[in-house]
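## retry 2 of 3
previous attempt timed out at serialization; input unchanged, resubmitting
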Amino acid sequence: MADIVISEFMDQPSVDALSADFQVLYDPNLVDDPAGLAAAVMDARGLIVRNRTQVRDGLLASAGGLRVVGRLGVGLDNIDLEACRQRNIAVCPARGANDTAVAEYVITTAMVLLRGAYALSAQVMAGAWPRQAAIGREIAGQLFGLVGYGAIARETARLAQALGASVLAYDPHLPSDDPVWASATRAPALASVLEAADVLSLHVPLTTETTGLVDAQAIARMKHDAILISTARGSVVDEGALISALQSGALAGAALDVFVEEPLGAAAGARFANCPNLILTPHIAGVTAESNVRVSAVTADSVRAVLESDA
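## retry succeeded, writing output
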């Protein structure tokens, strides 16, 4: 039986490195096979997941010998942290390993949405010449509003400022005298960011406090020409309210990498039809060829360290 079960995709060299010293079951299809996953972890000491595998009481009850859960990423809403704590199971997110990937996604989508010229290929190929429609805005001079000011948001701020944008950030969990505020203007309240931002980017975990944080009332506070970007978690944004705002022109554009329902089914996806200046991506902001190598290596090392400390 396997010492370590890996239920979602992982960089192969990191899988191989673990396999040199442990019995490893690497099957990215297990995420969609709950019964198979429960059977696989019965004798496992380590479990490595991304964001789709639900590590909760049912699965943990099947894994009596589990000592560590490695998370290929940083969000932990798919892992019952209290249940793991009660069972003395270490949870190891890959903090810092995908900061650059997410920050570059935010900057890229902001530039695409602000400029507004990159969805016109079909019209140009058809012989149209929509120059007036393609006149957009520069990122320089825009104000980035960041909700949450952890490591990824701070890297986003650095890149935005390098391009000439300014940054206003809100994070009630960071003390006002924290040294990180040297890199951005600290907003006293969420409303301040909502009302001032040209680009609003969300960088918060999913909690009871942040569920529905950007709802119809929050969107109504935003500028009509503002852009919303969410790489946080789907339930942080009220999708219905966002759709209404885009379709009515109350918001100039949005990019969503995360959704209430993941994977986004056809029926749920159809709700976003006829929304102008909208980018939808499949929870991929933090995953690049480079970040996958870093995330996988950090996770493998963390899992190895826990298991070897128990030996």
